[in-house]
From TrEMBL:
Cited InterPro entries: Delta_60_rpt
Name of the protein in question: PKD domain containing protein
One Pfam family, short name: DUF5122
Lineage summary: Bacteria, Bacillati, Actinomycetota, Actinomycetes, Micromonosporales
Superkingdom per UniProt: Bacteria
Signal peptide start and end residues: 1-25
Keywords of the record: Signal
Length: 420
């Protein structure tokens, strides 16, 4: 069937309806997105885009950059670490909150705000070490939210229902001792006393959560990072928790797929996780170094969430020695980003092995088999594509480089949804 691009007005209306609350798991899209990016996204002129959140028809972008410009515009706009633009037009919003350090994570809030985490101590002159909630339209702090993040860094945020989940290297947050993972009241930032998964490392490395995902119904949470136990149970680098209701607990589902280490310099080699739109499975993206086809290094894998106990992956796709940083799941595809050169490459050693297909920087995989789909927009590699976010309008892509679909797009772009 011929692919038809949605009219712009319809896209913006659909976004406003479908993303009024945070889109927390994979966004269901009718087909694989276009391999040609839209022309109107603004350009980030330096640094790296490390986080993207969508609130209504506004895209909030965080990182360690300082300057942006609208598409085709010559005016350079000072936007240090954080800015927002309008979906459908690319117009950069006037709001310019003042942060004294880079942004590491973002999550859409339940009432038009955005949660911002990073290496900052103050926001708009007010003490908010590491975590704050901002009004998207004005850039002002949202009154009442003060999580009082302690020492350490917040590396991941996701909002679900009346909660905000934070992951990183911290040991206290929201007025409570929490190691690497916490659930916070979305209105106040106070830690939920009922949620403490007690992450630990048997080899005494520092606990670190790299990425989080929550199902669209808020019932399940996934976390990846440097830990090997949770709530006293074996959970090497990947856990799933039952997050619904008033008594959250570690899920009985587990996997030992990531128990073996890759290069010893990595305390954890998992970098991204996302649930399928229906919440019945998840996908995990990894770095790790070249260890052949028997380990899970430099790979993306699907895990089905049916049943209890230990689970093997349903499929694994390996890059042959190049890092994957990010993953986003839709009904039609599993998108992965990184600085990979190939997919379908289990025998590669930073080279194209038998059956390898060229997929520089970004790829789409069949969700049922894991094989690379023909889709191949390409992305300049650099450190790599670290952010993939799906919305009804398509796939938002954030990175440290400026070539997407073989055209100039400064560190952010949108590959639009198409009708299948």
């Amino acid at each position: 069937m011929r692919k038809i691009y949605r009219p712009l007005a319809a896209v913006v209306l659909l976004i406003a309806l479908a993303v009024a609350g945070p889109a927390v798991a994979g966004q269901s899209l009718p087909g694989v997105v276009s391999d040609q990016p839209v022309a109107w996204t603004p350009n980030v002129l330096d640094g790296t885009v490390t986080a993207i959140a969508v609130v209504g028809d506004t895209v909030v972008v965080g990182g360690d950059f300082t300057t942006v410009a609208e598409a085709g515009g010559k005016t350079r706009l000072r936007r240090r670490y954080l800015f927002a633009f309008q979906l459908g037009t690319g117009r950069v919003l006037d709001a310019a909150p003042v942060l004294d350090g880079p942004v590491t994570a973002l999550a859409a809030g339940p009432s038009g705000g955005v949660y911002v985490a990073g290496k900052f101590a103050r926001v708009n002159g007010t003490a908010r070490p590491g975590l704050a909630e901002l009004d998207v339209a004005t850039g002002a702090l949202v009154p009442g939210f003060d999580a009082k993040a302690g020492k350490g860094q917040i590396r991941a945020l996701v909002a679900g229902g009346s909660w905000v989940y934070a992951g990183g290297t911290f040991t206290s947050i929201g007025g409570a001792n929490r190691t690497g993972l916490a659930r916070l009241d979305a209105a106040t930032g106070a830690a939920d006393p009922a949620f403490d998964l007690r992450l630990a490392n048997a080899n005494h490395d520092k606990v670190k959560v790299e990425a989080l995902a929550v199902t669209n119904d808020g019932a399940r949470l996934a976390a990846v990072g440097a830990f090997d136990t949770a709530a006293g149970q074996r959970r090497p680098q990947l856990l799933v928790a039952d997050a619904g209701g008033t008594a959250p607990a570690l899920d009985a589902w587990s996997t030992d797929a990531y128990a073996a280490r890759c290069k010893t310099l990595y305390d954890s080699y998992l970098r991204g996780v996302d649930f399928a739109p229906d919440g019945t499975w998840l996908a995990v993206a990894a770095t790790g170094g070249m260890s052949g086809a028997t380990r899970m290094c430099d790979s993306v894998a699907r895990f089905d969430l049916d049943g209890r106990g230990n689970h093997a992956p349903a499929w694994v796709n390996r890059t042959g020695g190049n890092t994957l940083w990010s993953v986003a799941v839709t009904g039609a595809a599993v998108y992965v980003g990184g600085h990979q050169q190939w997919m379908d490459n289990p025998a590669g050693h930073k080279s194209a092995g038998p059956g390898a297909v060229s997929r520089p920087g970004i790829a789409a995989l069949d969700p049922h088999t894991g094989a690379a789909l023909p889709w191949n927009p390409t992305h300049s590699r650099g450190v790599g594509v670290g952010v993939l976010v799906t919305v009804p309008a398509g796939l938002l892509v954030g990175s440290d480089t400026d070539q997407l679909g073989r055209t100039y797009h400064g560190r952010i772009g949108l590959l639009p949804a198409v009708d299948g």
